[in-house]
Amino acid sequence: MHELSLCQNLIDQLTDLTNTHHAVAVARVEVQVGVLSGVEAQLLQSAFTLARAGTVADAAELITEVTTPRVSCRWCGAESDTPPNNLCCLACDSFDTQLIRGHELILARVELVKNEPLTL
Prior knowledge:
alpha+beta, hypothetical protein PF0899 fold, 3-stranded mixed sheet, 3-stranded antiparallel sheet, 2 helices
């Protein structure tokens, strides 16, 4: 399960972010997972639960947004969402396309927790 090693790298990034921004914890993490990325969103969720234990993300919620494939046609210039098993242009049926979305794994958003001074 390579999702665990991905989550361990994610925890390293979150630790760096909390240090950079003088935060004490991570509250929420949002990632975009393309269906062609080779990463299973459900396995990523499970692996995150294991990897976050005892870290700055110990109580963090992981939100995964699964993105579908989108291609740009080099022949007619159209962009279209496609099924993962058919990356041809939906406008002209050309196979000369470029995948522009659906293969990514992106750390999209992080919510950090900071210690606020107490006022009496």
